[in-house]
Amino acid sequence: MYKITEKIFLNSTIVQIKVEAPLIASKIKAGQFVILRVDENGERVPFTVTDANKDDGTITIIFQVLGATTRIMSTLEAGQFLQDVTGPLGKQTHLEGIKKAIVVGGGSGCAIAYPIAKALKENSAQVSSISGFRTKDLVIMQEAFTTISEKTQLVTDDGTAGRKGLVTNVLEEWLEADEYDAVIAIGPLPMMKFVCKVTEKYSTPTIVSMNSIMIDGTGMCGCCRLTVGGKTKFACVDGPDFNGHEVDFDEAISRMSMYTEFEKKADEHVCNLLKQGGAEI
C-alpha cells in the first residue's frame, strides 16, 4: 500500500498528489513513469512522475480527471492509500548534448514536460518553454516553468490568459529567430503532430512523449504499440520518448480513438457508483 501524503486541485479538472514511494523516488529519472492501481480490483494506469523527493521518499503525480480511475483517485484524500505503484518504467529522456532547447507542453502534458525542462536546466542547458491551454481556468504550473526557463510563453485558445493562439504560432516565431538543439513536445497527439510539422521545416530534432494506452508496462500486451520510422515500437519499453519526425501520428490518433467510447461508458458507470455512495460528482 502506498500512502497519499498530499492532495491539491490545481484547477477544476487537474489534481496533484504526493505518494510515499521511497524506492521509486530514489531511482526515477525525467521521462519515466509508474503504473498504479487504486485498489485490488482497479485497472492498471500509467502516470508520468512530475517530481521526486529523495529526502522524504515521495513522488508527485499530476493527472486530469477524465476516465474511471482518475475519477476515483480524485476522491481520495491525504492519509488514504493506493493499492500498487510500480516503477520506474520506460526509458529516461536522453538529454545529452542538448545545450539550448524549447520545451512545449499542452494541457495536462505540462506536468510531463516540466521534469524534462527541469532536468535540462540542471544539465546547464538554456531552456525556453511554451505552455498551451484552452482557457485560463485550465492553466497549471506556470510559476514552475518560469523559474527554470530563460523565456516562457503562455498561450490560450481563447486569449483569456497569456497570448491568444496556438503553441505552434510561438514555436515557429522562436525557430525563425534563433537556432535550437532540440524541441521537446508533450501533450495531445494532434498538438505534437503539428509541432513536428513546424520543426521539420527548420530541421530541428524533436522529441515527443507517447503516453499511450498501457496495461502491463512490459511490452507483452501490445496496447501501446505505435509505428516509428516504419517499425513497430512499444511506448512502455521502447519509449515513451521517440523521434517525433518518425512517429506515425495519424495511426496513433486513430488507435487512441478506439478507446474513446469504452472510456465514456466506464466513466458513466463509475460516476453512478460514486453517486450511490454519496459522493458529489
Outline the structure in words.
This protein is of the alpha/beta class and 281 residues long. The chain folds into two domains: 2-89, Elongation Factor Tu (Ef-tu), domain 3 (Beta Barrel); 100-209, 3-Layer(aba) Sandwich (Rossmann fold). The protein is built from nine helices and 16 strands. A seven-stranded antiparallel sheet has the order 6-1-2-5-4-3-7. Helix 4 links the parallel strand 9 and strand 10. It is globular, with a radius of gyration of 18 Å.
Straight-line distance between termini:
26 Å
Sheet with most strands: 7 strands, antiparallel
Strand content: 25-35%
* Helix content range: 25-40%
For the record, what CATH class of the largest domain applies?
A: Alpha Beta
Please, how many helices?
Answer: 9
> Quick one: how many beta strands?
16
Summarize the entry for a quick read.
The chain has 281 residues and is α/β, with parallel strands linked by helices. It has helices at 22-27, 68-73, 110-122, 142-148, 167-177, 189-201, 235-238, 249-257, 260-276; strands spanning 2-9, 14-20, 33-37, 45-53, 58-64, 81-82, 84-89, 100-106, 126-133, 151-156, 163-164, 182-186, 206-209, 225-228, 231-234, 241-243. Helix 6 runs antiparallel to helix 8 (249-257).
